[in-house]
Description:
This protein is an all-alpha fold. It is built from nine helices and no strands. Helices cover 77% and strands 0% of the residues. It is globular, with a radius of gyration of 16 Å.
Amino acid sequence: MDVVPLATALLAGYLLGAIPSGYLVALFLAHRDVRAQGSGKTGATNVRRLLGWRGFFLVLFLDALKGVAAVVLARWLVPEPDTWAAALGGLAAVTGHTWPVFLRFRGGRGVAPGGGAMFAMLPEVMLLSTLVGAPTVLLSRYVSLGSVLGTLVVPLVTLVLVVFFDRPWPYFLYAVLASALILRKHKDNIERLISGTERRI
């Protein structure tokens, strides 16, 4: 594998992920810094507290698009073997979203770009993850619980597809590392869920 195209793909993936969609949407639509609200994060859930569901779905779409774009770009830059490039490019996007250079490394929790990247690699995994996460949010009114359960599904389903349906192993590596990062960023949410003090929607 040529190092220069791969390094370019990783840098591009990080910079795509680092585009602060939530911060920019809140700034343009509400003229406020979303980091001063709620959890202090720039993701869709915190934007919803400021702009409602319209802002939530807009930022969710834009953040997911960053993950998709990172994978597509990585495949274009490194066509062979593109599965490794796609996996690493997607992981770079999640990293960029979580620690964006443009906002002094203070970003979101990585759910949307992580899901977007996974969708670009294995859309069936994201379908199953959404089928777990979305109803959990609707029934419990905890976005964080839906995010955590949906994230836990990703590496499990990916492993099944890799072992029994011959999907690429690099995608499983992505699923494990991205999910671990996302769950780590939800540590405070998990603690509040256990203690019963987590915020509902």
